[in-house]
Each structure stands twice: as structure tokens, then as C-alpha cells.
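WARN no homologs supplied; continuing
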Amino acid sequence: MLLNNPKRIAFVINGLPVGGAEKFLISIVNHFFSIGYEPIVILLNDQIALLHELNPNIQIQTIKKKYRFDLFVSFRIRYFIKSHNINKVFCINAYPFFMTKLAFIFDRQTKFYLSLHSTIPNSTNIFIKNFFCYRLVSKRDVIVYLCKNQQQYLQKKYFIPNSFVSVINNGIDKDYFNINSIPEFNYDTLRATYNIPKGATVIVNVARVSREKGHSCAIDALYILHKEFNSKSHLVFVGDGNANYLALLKQQVYDKSLQHYVHFTNVQSDVRKFYCISDLFTLTSTSETFSLAALEAMAFGLPISLTDVGGAREMLIEGVTGELANVNDAYSIAKSWNKLLGSNTKSNHIRQYFLDNFTSDRMYLDYEKLILSNQGV
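OK structure emitted
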């Protein structure tokens, strides 16, 4: 009989499209590989836009449904895990956990870790699916929340069964997200690319273009900032999304005569330069957990304006590193922007706050301790 390999961990995720959960998985898997573990990534679909960011020496296995209600995929996942002598399985979000755990219900040798990267369900259908997924959580499983607010919300919303709980905030690479690490570029030339005059204040939003990210409310807030606070700031949206929704946003910009002040950049391979030309970072989301983009902005010393959802309150210090705004409240958002643009927040203090709390080094250490504490289980 082959013995389980304590250094081998299966990481299960839907796929690798562009997204925060996917970026997190790649970061964690690459790290564990670098310190001598043998991570194996199991994908449940063919979306692999971020595959190039994964260390090429890491094994990847795609195990897809053959048809819509193919629950036998769970047993194919189990067979793969058992045949590779793995007894630790790290699942990203509820659905991959459900599809994997389904074939392990009576297995007491395999340890499951459920890492949750979403909070508020976007529809009743998603709520129902999540509800059934969480029914498979057992006392032996480890649930990793990204912030305390997420933990409280999900436990109350879904009546998640008792299990071992850990709260580990996201973290990012302090060396990569550092102004000194960026290839030299001309700030004025980049601004000119988007017709932003030299000296104009810039508010940047780095997020997938989708309704829950609140881009429409941000446009309304900019209109208020111009009209009521007399601040002719520019708003830069870095990201891409549904073409129809993007067209609606551009029409909204035109209707409010903001076409010279709102700029859409689409997807960028390197977002760091946009933080460098900006004075303020904002997220106007209606649903958020613990934004990586907000951490990136703080790493560059930018004050951050966040709607009060998810871990926003746990991420900033009001009046020092940023401000909170009410969800779906364009006036509240504009007011927070105006306050931060007129404040004397210190970029070096903001970066130091990031260094003290939200680096990837700190996050990796927390996950190493979590895995090691369950080595013998």
C-alpha cells in the first residue's frame, strides 16, 4: 500500500479566468511549490487565461463534467486524488468544494480546506446552490475566510455547520507592487494617451466591469463631484467585462457630458503604472470580499475610497489611509473622494500600513501554519 505524501496538496478550482480568486490560487500554489511542497492543480473547466502565471513545473489536471448533471465527475476527482496519494485538498469557493467533497463524505483520512472568495450571492439561484454546497461541510473541515465580516455574514446567511475556522486576509507582493520596481515610463505620456491634462487629479478604479462593481454609481459620483464639489477630477476605469454593459456605461458618460473626464482602458497586463499617475483609488462595489486591487493601491501609497461592504472596514483606517462610503450612494462616494483629494494623507504612511498588515509574506506564513497544524490529520 502506498503511503500518503504529506507534501502533496490538491488545489481544486473551477478554472483560471482573470479574477481575484484565481490570482490568489496561483499565488498560493506557486509559493508552496517554492518551499518544497508538491501542489497539484485540478481544474473543473477549460478557462485558462491565467495559466501562464502558474509555475510551469506544477502539475495540472482538468476534470470536467461530460454533461450537465454529471455527478460522476466527483468520483473521477476522488480517483485522481487517491491515485496520487494525496490527503490534503484545498478548494477555492463552494462549488469546487461540493463537487470534490461529494465523493469523500465517508472518508476520514482526507483533510479538506475551503477557501471562500465571494460573500453576497448575486442571485437567488446562486444562494440556493451555495446553501446545498455548504451542507457538506463537516467538523473535520477547515474553512478559511478572508475577513471577519465575511465570516459573520456567511455563517448567518447559510447556517454553515460547525468546523475549524481561520481568518486570513489577502496579501500581495510588496516588491512587485512598489514604485521602484516599475520599468521606467513617462507619466505625462500615459496621461496624454487618455487625454488627461498635466496636473489634473485622477481617480482610478481597477475592477472587472460588471454590475456588482458599481461602475454606474461611480459615474454618477463623478458628476456630483464636478457639480457640487467643483472638482474637475478624471475617473479611469481599468478593466474589461460584458460588452453590452460597457456600452451602457459609455452612454451614461455621454448623457452626463463626462466624456472628457471618464476613461476606459480595457484589460491591462500591468496595472501598476495607473496607480502611479493617480491621486486616489476607489471601489464602488455592491459586493466585495477583500479587494486585491485596494491592497495594490495602498502599496503605492494611494488613499482608498471603498464602499462599506465585505472587509472594507478591516482594510483601512478612516481619515488616515482612506474613507468609507455608503453602498449605492453616489453622493456619499463623491463626498469621500472630495475629502481624500483635499486631505493631507501621507503616501509613505499608507504604504507602511500596507507593509505592516497586508503583504503576501504574512499571508503565506499564515497558510503554512494552517497546513502544518493539520499535517497529521
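Residues 28 and 109 are 23 Å apart (CA to CA).
OK
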